[in-house]
Amino acid sequence: MIRRFEIRTRARVCYCLSGPVVAYAVRTLQVLHDAGHRLDAVELEAWALASGWDPDAARLLVEYIKGVLSGHRYRLRETVGPTRDALRHWREAVEAPKQ
Known about the structure:
Low-confidence stretches: 9-15
Structural class: mainly alpha
Largest sheet: none
Number of domains: 1
Helix content: 55-70%
């Protein structure tokens, strides 16, 4: 649930991954993976397509997921991506009671 929350909020209307969106998505995947969250490429591709992503962008997301899972460390701009305490904020947002 946490991985979907962050990707959805940062790329809600993005139909193709490029530039800062790629960096943010990859860093988000890295943060979640490094924290022990399971990244399911098939599940996330299905979510992206159901959320209106362009099929090419969804396939590119899968490639980034596979890269993160295989340990590839991407060279990304330091200023783009989740903050150091983002994981805590994501968990709080997911666990917050619905009003």
